[in-house]
Design goal:
The strands form two sheets. A three-stranded mixed β-sheet has the order 1-2-3. It has five helices and six strands; from the N terminus they run H-E-H-E-E-H-E-H-E-E-H.
Length: 171
């Protein structure tokens, strides 16, 4: 992997989209006092794998994933018991890695990698949950950018071919 100068990093950061422009908005959340059964229900209904956990005033209190719930269910099953559906989300939720909505996508990418997580809970200045950004969101953004670059290259190549043909056939 090559080294970048501070100037290159600064320019890349300036041109990088803001998290608020890329994140999933109107994110489905769950209260820390809510039940595991309701968390699973919400995940199934919305076809999602994770829920930001919120405390009073919609402040971030953690995150719960379907994998976390399944792991806890397996733990209980090993003991010959069932995870009570009435168990509170707060008992299973993990600390969420959060990031402010005004940061850029490069910051999100670094936070995902530095913390070895697949998603970040996005908060506003008051630490209220306003969205979520995942590693997949960033991959999709990169794919869109690369597709746009390829499209631009196709247009440039077409113009060059047209110019070459025009010069050959005297148009």
């Amino acid at each position: 992997m090559g080294m970048f100068t501070l100037k290159q990093v600064a320019v890349a950061s300036e041109n990088c989209p803001k998290i608020k422009d890329v994140m999933a908005k109107n994110v489905v959340t769950i209260a820390e006092s809510d039940t595991i059964a309701n968390a699973l229900y919400k995940m199934e209904q919305k076809h999602i794998l994770r829920l930001p956990v919120v405390a009073e005033n919609n402040r971030s209190a953690g995150i719960i994933t379907k994998a976390d719930i399944r792991a806890k269910q397996a733990e209980f099953a090993e003991m010959g018991a069932e995870l009570p559906g009435a168990c509170q989300v707060a008992k299973i939720a993990k600390n969420a890695v959060t990031i402010k909505e005004y940061k850029n996508v490069a910051d999100a990418y670094n936070a995902l990698n530095d913390n070895n997580v697949g998603s970040l809970v996005v908060t506003n200045e008051n630490c209220q949950v306003v969205g979520i950004i995942t590693n997949m969101d960033i991959c999709n953004l990169q794919a869109e950018k690369e597709a746009e670059e390829i499209e631009n290259m196709d247009e440039e190549v077409s113009l060059l071919i047209k110019k070459a043909l025009d010069s050959i056939f005297g148009k």
